[in-house]
Amino acid sequence: MIDYLIFFLFVLAAFAGLISHVFGFPGNFIILADSILFGWYGGFKEVTITVLAVLLALALLGELVEFVLGMVGAKKYKSSNKAIVGSIVFGIIGGILGIPFFFGIGAVIGAFIGVFVGAFLVEFVLEKNVDRAMKSGWGAFVGRLGGTFFKGAIGIAMIVITIVSVLGN
Length: 169
Fold this sequence. Notes:
By secondary structure, this protein is mainly α. The protein is 81% helix and 0% strand.
């Protein structure tokens, strides 16, 4: 039998994990931890160890693909490795600084602007070429966007799998 309060708390925490993707955090692992707690609460009768193993595999896949898409996007536009690191650092900083704006939606905007600015600044400092720095920033932005969407889709699938395993039993 489902405990509706616990189910509601699971859904709330799972969506918090989903939203955390835009800050550069491993939100799918938050969803996985949430699912583990939900499974533990139910004695792993509905959210089984098999379901949790599938969720772990999906979380790892999401991280891997996000990393690869970020690298591919940046490398496609000839970003240096240092510019890629700059995009990651500035993406996190931008996400955190954007939190107070637009009722939290500013975090999303800040994270994506931060990715662009980080790659742009590092590439500009290294190469002293505005065109190359702009391309590097754009590549980092596109890669981050693709990676975030993919990882978010994986997170949604993880939430759905957990909910179906609970409601289906």
